Amino acid sequence: MHRSKFVFAAFLGVISVALAVSAVRVAARQQASPQKEKMAPASGSGQMQGMPGMDHDMPGMDMGQGAGDKDPQAEHGAMDAMSRMHHHQMGPHMYMTKLRPSNSQDWAKGDEIVKELRESIEKYKDYHAALADGFRIFMPNVPQAEYHFTNYYDGYLESFRFDPTLPTSLLYKKTKTGYELIGAMYTMPKRVTEDQLNERIPLSVAQWHLHTKLCMPPKDERGHADLTRFGLTGSIITKESCTDAGGTFYPVIFGWMVHVYPFEDSREKIWGQ
User: What is the C-alpha separation between 254 and 37, in angstroms, rounded?
Assistant: First the structure.
């Protein structure tokens, strides 16, 4: 009994420290210049770098779905496939929450989130400031409709708290001279319920999404697999079909995501409806 109380107290201590560090981090961002927090830019290899153990997946979005031991190659392949998809693409590999009935209270909350987000990321219109502040570009050498600049520390903390000013990722469109800031992405672990998503951002305002039913090709085919069958754009959507094809099936990959475009001129465009 005493041991259980000690473990629980230790857990609460860890959470308290994480939240306290988050508060300090917010204050530091408001006061420090980008040069004071400058970190080395991401390497050209395209691998994600950040917190230990997170170089192949987005924070809070582990594969972990009963398909065996963690497979870094599968995670990287899944992220590669995601990078080639636009988040509005619908199909059997994406699950989106249904829009709930609209009401003024939800829209007021949504508008406040957008206001806080817009003000907090305005400085990142210069993408160099984002890099200096700890954001890392996912797969910069792969052509994408939207490039995710991810802050792994903030993404990890999103599992415990929601701060509209600290999104997991910034969204950029590539230009001839660099990157243009267009939005941001919030995340939550895949284990949470839709009601918990609704508590953060109302489901009458935004649609969160999950990437689902991924069949990774056999290891000896990766790099030259038939993408009409495998991956997040492939035709294989059941575990049985994936097993027959010699692949590895993941019912859900990573976790909940929602994109927000705070610089757009209407609520519908801002929330991607």
Answer: 29
